[in-house]
């Protein structure tokens, strides 16, 4: 009975256990089924094959590489336009032999009873850490939920590997794999991961380089920059600022010498001079690597001074610097409201810096309340919360629209009674980092030059090309020089560094160290006496650097007192600052843009002018002829090379300095090239290739406007020597035959701009002293040097100058088949033939242009007008005296004839830049001479 009862009890116990198992399995099944039903809406329209978000994969750094056995294969995935990588069209993805994708959750095996160990047979034992890894065998990147398990697990290698697959299978999960006892990680299953390359952008690491740039801004109320130039300059460098906004610069209009002291190397500035007798003035100092452009306000404001500049990035950023003088409460809010409304309509990101002179720290201040209401209405954010004035008020503000301000620091007031403010701004897009320009150079020292001379002497002993073919001889000589130079001094790449100021000495460095020491002492103890010592050391540093700079330039002026060229250059570098208008063009496409502009400009001018040159009959008899050009001796060539300026072209095989140093070795070959060209009347083709360097026409012009540039040719050093030899002979012929235009200045000894100015002014003053009015017409020609017709110029040389024979053949060879390209930075444009014009920047160009204009003097003398020429500039002037036969009608007739002659000679008169000035002894009666009659256009 007891046995039956025990048997029944055991049966009921097993039934109870089975029922519990069944119930547990049932509820688990219901739970999984409910989960599956809840996922159906999300899986609707989703392809059963693996599809994942490409942006999510890009966030993985580094990404996973699984081609072949452990890397992606190029043809195994297709990218849809919306940026999701799918495996629908991949033939290998459909093959189980090609890729064995394991499921993310392995099918569970038959449930096993838990082991019962020893005395703890009825207790549950906690699993060791490694036990879970035995089942999952996942480690490293596989733990990231963003990575699909099927892409991370290893698969068996494909029977036939495609091209590019290494065919090496990865280690499998097995018992022999070495594991960590603490974490259960199988180290053999960890795989090396490389960055995924993006199309057109490089590796994933490149994305970090394209991160938004954080730039540091500074705001200082200097209360006169004039006595703090070097202090503020050191402040800019010490804090590594990108922009320094200065209020109350107190710089008057026309005084830019203090800006040259203020600007550190590699920086530029925008200057708004003070508009009142007291206070005012704005200056922005910034690194030249930032593409900035100063803007002109569209509205004028009477309640504050304004400086606007744009950071030329995409999207654009506008920076506004404001100084509001005290006691201008009436119109300030209205003016500032108009300014903000105009700015935020044009820009998505705006920064406002300045001294607003508003006590925003006082809650009862009426102006402060209205100011905060205005900021709130425009969704502007004001970031300064601490006092910025020595008396405890907050006057200097930093306001932003669309940009956050970070790390804002208010420093103690030292320069003035206002505290400097520093802050970091994350620009809306990365700014291209302009690294220091790298140049290729050859290390030429005394030892290198000696080796070059020795090697060249040996090679020249066997150098014997045909000297009668000067073009062939020149080419072989260049090849020989290049080969020897590559051996003794190969090209090296070097990045240029900003030069240090030459006036800095041990005294100035000691003053700077004293400033640093006193600053540290003041920051340590915070005493007022330490602060005063720090300020005194700053003043001493300013005085020491300024005195050293003055002594440096005074020495240059005293040493070159008889050299006007160096004197003018030195004075301009000390007194004149050219404000930047925009960033300089350095892109690769700009060289082609300049090339196209220069070609199209001349072609357009030639197209609108139908030249039909009819020269007036020469008033002088036929000139003596110059039939041939004389060759030069070795001694004459040696003196010419010694006097020649060491400037050349990027196409020079040998640097000009090496020509001068190694002339005893190279002189005979150079003389062979020059004398062969003079005797045969042929100019080598290598000497007619010019590299155009675009140069601004006027200082301060907008460098972003391509029309503000003129083409300046840089020619090889040997070409300049050849031109110099011909120039001396041509000038001698013109002077001996009295063929120069008497009133032609420029590029002639004793005829400079000063002589032209003195003559014109003297004649005008003499007429005014006699009580006679004077008309002065200043003619301006468009691209005069570039539109010269070669056939007309050769006719001038033959008929007006008397050049004939082989000499005329030499000039014909010099003008024809010339080529040029444009160079910006290290980028060259394509080459183009020069069909018209004489090269600007050459030695013969200005002289040939003066010969081209010789007939103009006959026209002016025929009408009895005074004139003076300087290169392509022409001044026509005449007194208005009826008694002497000088009338306006004769003046107008002369001008019309000049215009017709210019048109027939392919010269374009720029009427927009041609100016007419009327001089009268009594300025109140000048109106009666204002009507000069019409000038008929052609």
UniProtKB/TrEMBL annotation:
<keyword id="KW-1133">Transmembrane helix</keyword>
<feature type="compositionally biased region" description="Basic residues">
    <location>
        <begin position="108"/>
        <end position="129"/>
    </location>
</feature>
<protein>
    <recommendedName>
        <fullName>Reverse transcriptase domain-containing protein</fullName>
    </recommendedName>
</protein>
<feature type="domain" description="Reverse transcriptase">
    <location>
        <begin position="676"/>
        <end position="938"/>
    </location>
</feature>
<keyword id="KW-0472">Membrane</keyword>
<dbReference type="InterPro" id="IPR043502">
    <property type="entry name" value="DNA/RNA_pol_sf"/>
</dbReference>
<feature type="compositionally biased region" description="Basic residues">
    <location>
        <begin position="172"/>
        <end position="181"/>
    </location>
</feature>
<dbReference type="InterPro" id="IPR000477">
    <property type="entry name" value="RT_dom"/>
</dbReference>
<dbReference type="InterPro" id="IPR005135">
    <property type="entry name" value="Endo/exonuclease/phosphatase"/>
</dbReference>
<feature type="region of interest" description="Disordered">
    <location>
        <begin position="162"/>
        <end position="181"/>
    </location>
</feature>
<keyword id="KW-0812">Transmembrane</keyword>
<feature type="region of interest" description="Disordered">
    <location>
        <begin position="101"/>
        <end position="144"/>
    </location>
</feature>
<dbReference type="GO" id="GO:0003824">
    <property type="term" value="F:catalytic activity"/>
</dbReference>
<dbReference type="Pfam" id="PF03372">
    <property type="entry name" value="Exo_endo_phos"/>
</dbReference>
<dbReference type="Pfam" id="PF00078">
    <property type="entry name" value="RVT_1"/>
</dbReference>
<feature type="transmembrane region" description="Helical">
    <location>
        <begin position="25"/>
        <end position="43"/>
    </location>
</feature>
<dbReference type="InterPro" id="IPR036691">
    <property type="entry name" value="Endo/exonu/phosph_ase_sf"/>
</dbReference>
């Amino acid at each position: 009975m007891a046995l039956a009862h025990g048997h029944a009890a055991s049966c009921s116990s097993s039934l109870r256990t089975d029922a519990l198992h069944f119930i547990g399995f049932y509820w688990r099944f219901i739970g999984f089924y409910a989960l599956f039903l809840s996922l159906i809406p999300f899986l609707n329209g989703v392809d059963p094959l693996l599809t994942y978000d490409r942006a999510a994969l890009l966030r993985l750094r580094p990404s996973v590489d699984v081609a072949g056995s452990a890397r992606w294969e190029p043809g195994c995935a297709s990218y849809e336009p919306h940026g999701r990588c799918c495996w629908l069209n991949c033939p290998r993805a459909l093959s189980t032999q090609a890729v064995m994708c394991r499921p993310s959750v392995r099918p569970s095996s038959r449930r096993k009873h838990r082991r019962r160990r020893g005395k703890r047979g009825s207790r549950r034992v906690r699993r060791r850490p490694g036990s879970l890894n035995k089942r999952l065998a996942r480690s490293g990147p596989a733990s990231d939920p963003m990575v699909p398990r099927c892409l991370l697990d290893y698969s068996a290698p494909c029977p036939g590997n495609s091209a590019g697959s290494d065919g090496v299978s990865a280690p499998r999960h097995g018992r022999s794999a070495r594991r960590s006892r603490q974490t259960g990680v199988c180290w053999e299953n960890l795989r090396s991961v490389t960055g995924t390359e993006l199309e057109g952008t490089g590796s994933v690491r490149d994305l970090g380089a394209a991160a938004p740039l954080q730039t540091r801004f500074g705001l200082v109320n200097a209360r006169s920059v004039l006595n703090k130039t070097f202090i503020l300059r050191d402040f800019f460098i010490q804090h590594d600022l990108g922009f320094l906004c200065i209020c109350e610069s107190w710089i008057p209009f026309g005084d830019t010498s203090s800006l040259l002291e203020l600007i550190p190397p590699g920086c530029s500035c925008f200057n708004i001079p003070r508009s009142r007798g007291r206070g005012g003035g704005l200056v922005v100092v910034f690194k030249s690597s930032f593409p900035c452009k100063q803007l002109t306000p569209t509205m004028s404001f009477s309640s504050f001074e304004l400086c606007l500049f744009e950071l030329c990035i995409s999207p654009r950023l506008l920076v506004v610097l404001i100084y509001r003088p005290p006691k201008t409460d009436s119109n300030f809010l209205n003016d500032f409201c108009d300014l903000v409304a105009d700015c935020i309509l044009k820009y998505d990101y705006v920064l406002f810096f300045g001294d607003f002179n508003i006590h925003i720290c006082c809650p009862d201040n009426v102006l402060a309340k209205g100011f905060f209401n205005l900021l709130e209405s425009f969704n502007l954010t004001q970031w300064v919360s601490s006092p910025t004035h020595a008396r405890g008020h907050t006057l200097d503000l930093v306001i932003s629209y669309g940009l956050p301000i970070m790390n804002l620091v208010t420093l103690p007031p030292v320069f003035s009674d206002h505290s400097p403010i520093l802050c970091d701004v994350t620009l809306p897009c990365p700014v291209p980092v302009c690294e220091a320009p790298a140049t290729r150079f050859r290390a030429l020292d005394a030892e290198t030059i000696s080796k070059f001379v020795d090697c060249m002497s040996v090679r020249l002993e066997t150098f014997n090309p045909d000297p009668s073919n000067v073009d062939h001889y020149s080419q072989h000589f260049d090849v020989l020089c290049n080969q020897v130079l590559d051996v003794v001094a190969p090209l090296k790449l070097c990045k240029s560094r900003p030069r240090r100021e030459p006036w800095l000495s041990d005294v100035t460095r000691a003053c700077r160290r004293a400033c640093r020491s006193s600053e540290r002492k003041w920051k340590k103890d915070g005493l007022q006496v330490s602060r005063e010592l720090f300020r005194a050391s700053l003043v001493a540093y300013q005085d020491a650097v300024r005195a050293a700079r003055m002594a440096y330039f005074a020495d240059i002026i005293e040493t070159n007192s008889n050299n006007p060229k160096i004197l003018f250059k030195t004075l301009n570098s000390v007194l004149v600052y050219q404000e930047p208008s925009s960033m300089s063009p350095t892109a690769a496409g700009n060289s082609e843009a300049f090339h196209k502009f220069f070609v199209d400009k001349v072609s357009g001018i030639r197209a609108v002018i139908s030249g039909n040159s009819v020269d007036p009959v020469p008033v002088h008899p036929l000139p003596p002829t110059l039939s041939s050009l004389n060759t030069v001796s070795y001694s004459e060539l040696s003196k010419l090379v010694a006097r020649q300026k060491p400037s050349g072209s990027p196409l020079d095989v040998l640097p000009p300095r090496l020509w001068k140093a190694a002339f005893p070795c190279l002189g005979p070959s150079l003389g062979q090239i020059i004398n062969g060209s003079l005797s045969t009347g042929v100019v080598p083709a290598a000497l007619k290739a010019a590299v155009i360097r675009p140069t601004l026409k006027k200082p301060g012009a907008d460098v972003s406007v391509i029309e503000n540039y003129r083409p300046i040719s840089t020619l090889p050093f040997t070409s300049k020597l050849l031109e110099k030899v011909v120039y001396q002979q041509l000038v001698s012929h013109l002077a001996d035959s009295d063929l120069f235009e008497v009133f032609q200045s420029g590029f002639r000894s004793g005829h400079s701009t000063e002589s032209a100015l003195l003559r014109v002014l003297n004649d005008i003053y003499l007429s005014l002293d006699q009580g006679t009015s004077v008309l002065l017409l200043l003619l301006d020609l468009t691209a005069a040097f570039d539109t010269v017709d070669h056939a007309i110029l050769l006719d001038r040389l033959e008929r007006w100058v008397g050049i004939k024979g082989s000499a005329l053949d030499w000039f014909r060879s010099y003008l024809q088949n010339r080529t040029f390209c444009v160079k910006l930075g290290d980028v060259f444009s394509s080459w183009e033939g020069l069909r018209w014009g004489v090269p600007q920047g050459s030695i013969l160009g200005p002289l040939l242009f003066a010969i081209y204009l010789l007939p103009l003097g006959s026209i002016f003398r025929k009408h009895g007008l005074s004139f003076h020429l300087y290169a392509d500039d022409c001044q026509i002037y005449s007194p208005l005296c009826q008694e002497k036969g000088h009338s306006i009608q004769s003046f107008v007739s002369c001008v019309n004839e000049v215009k017709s002659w210019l048109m027939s000679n392919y010269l374009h008169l720029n009427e927009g830049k041609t100016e007419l000035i009327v001089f009268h002894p009594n300025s109140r009666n000048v109106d009666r001479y204002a009507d000069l009659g019409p000038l008929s256009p052609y």
